[in-house]
Write a structure and sequence with these properties.
By secondary structure, this protein is α/β, with parallel strands linked by helices. The chain folds into 2 domains: about 200 residues, Rossmann fold; about 160 residues, Glycogen Phosphorylase B (Rossmann fold), CATH 3.40.50. The protein is built from 16 helices and 14 strands. The strands form 3 sheets. It has a 6-stranded parallel beta sheet. It has a 6-stranded parallel beta sheet with strand order 11-10-9-12-13-14, with helices on both faces. Helix 12 links the parallel strand 12 and strand 13. The two termini are about 20 Å apart.
């Protein structure tokens, strides 16, 4: 089978790109051919298919810190291409005619590639499966999170994104994005999507009930992880209980991730004299992280440390140094990689009982949950873990490893995808 794999960037950056290259390897190891399609950024990995990649209007636009450096002419071109990118349509049509893929597997496209790709697939009778790693089909912020709390108003009417200035806190940019979304909804681009794949059941339930996508076919296929050996057994004190509770947070450092109230919980534990440490891993070069560091200093917390960004390849080694990882999200996290990597390392997860986290982490089995945004609930859970005995901890660790090894098994993921792809190809050919 020849699989056209679409994603707006072709270099390692975050979770979606990690999946992009892992699933490419998975397909190829099982005898299938993968044809990537992306934008032609300088950071891209080398591929013979880059000749088909459209040039971005502005190099590194998606990561540029100062958007004011972009000329007015290019800003207009960017907006125009966000509605329908003719260059993308032309390049991917050319690719289809020459490479003749059997199916298109789309990861993230957004305004950078635009929905023009789905027109090309439809007109060339190519079946399409779209995998969702966030909520950008509905939410202008991608997170269903605004002003410190969950917001799902755009499920009923997307105009709320303009009212609340959801795009860069700017009315004009929010209005443009709203116009793009309405343009795609009115022209019914979603009818050209044959299957929508979600990593979590929560996301499936949420989006399949929306007016725009209720007629689409949804499929739940969890993210996969490559097999690893058994986890490293943690050391305990002579009285068979944890002496120093070592915690870590791994991921994006932003308001919706709930790190601020995780620090608040640590303050409560420190005031009680609890021996708990927390290491925070992630890109901390932003104003939100600086405010967190200020809070830590003002409260004289010497037991919390920012460790900066870490390479994905070292994830398994990172988690082995901790008893638990904490995911204090305040938004509907869509099966985060940090949860998978923690469990495969045999490190149980302490997670907010929200979104996909509520379906993935089961109390007293592979971790513990707490009420989202509730500092007392989190601190109570953490305090209870200090006295946990060695046998119980090892049971949690073993459960975490065995559960994720089965739930996110690579072979199972591959079989489900190929089974779905064959189904879509047969349905398309029979029409």
């Amino acid at each position: 089978m020849k699989i056209l794999l679409v994603h707006y960037r072709y270099y390692e950056s975050s979770g979606p790109e990690k999946y992009l290259f892992n699933v490419t390897k998975l397909f190829e190891e099982n005898g299938h051919e993968v044809v990537p399609f992306s934008l032609n950024y300088d950071e891209n990995k080398k591929t013979t298919f880059s000749k088909y990649f459209p040039e971005p209007i502005v190099s590194q636009f998606h990561i540029a810190k100062n958007k004011n450096e972009i000329s007015l002419k290019n800003k207009i071109r960017i907006i125009k291409n966000s509605f329908f990118n003719k260059d993308v349509y032309s390049k991917i049509t050319n690719l289809i005619e020459i490479e003749k893929p059997d199916i298109a597997y789309v990861l993230q496209f957004g305004t950078k590639i635009s929905t023009s790709i789905f027109d090309a697939f439809s007109r060339n009778n190519i079946p399409v499966a779209l995998r969702l790693s966030d909520f950008n089909l509905i939410c202008a912020k991608n997170t269903f999170y605004r002003d410190g709390e969950v917001c799902t108003k755009c499920i009923k009417h997307k105009y709320h994104s303009v009212i609340n200035k959801c795009v860069h806190d700017n009315y004009l940019q929010s209005s443009i994005y709203y116009g793009i979304q309405k343009f795609n909804e009115i022209r019914n681009f979603q009818s050209n999507i044959d299957a929508i794949i979600t990593p979590s059941r929560f996301t499936l339930d949420l989006l399949s009930k929306t007016n725009q996508y209720c007629k689409n076919k949804f499929f739940h296929i969890p993210t996969f992880i490559n097999k690893q050996g058994p986890p490293v057994i943690k050391s305990f004190t002579n009285n068979n209980s944890v002496n120093e509770l070592k915690l870590c947070y791994v991921g994006r450092i932003a308001d919706d991730k709930g790190i601020s109230f995780l620090i608040d919980a640590m303050i409560i534990l420190s005031n009680k004299g609890c021996n708990v440490t927390l290491d925070i891993f992630g890109d901390d070069q932003n104003s939100y992280a600086e405010n967190l560091k200020l809070k830590i200093n003002l409260n004289n917390l010497t037991n919390i440390h920012f460790k900066g960004f870490f390479p994905n390849k070292t994830a398994s080694l990172l988690y082995q140094n901790y008893h638990y990882s904490v995911i204090p999200s305040q938004w509907f996290d869509n099966m985060p990689n940090s949860l998978i990597e923690s469990c495969i390392s045999g490190v149980p997860v302490i997670a907010s009982k929200i979104g996909s986290l509520a379906e993935l982490i089961k109390d007293d089995f592979n971790g513990f949950t707490f009420e989202p945004s509730n500092v007392e609930s989190l601190s109570d859970v953490l305090e209870s873990l200090i006295s946990i005995n060695e046998n119980k901890y090892n049971e949690l660790s073993e459960n975490s490893f065995k559960w994720i090894s089965k739930y996110c098994d690579a072979d199972t993921h591959f079989k489900k995808l190929i089974e779905l792809f064959n189904k879509l190809i047969n349905e398309k050919n029979s029409k």
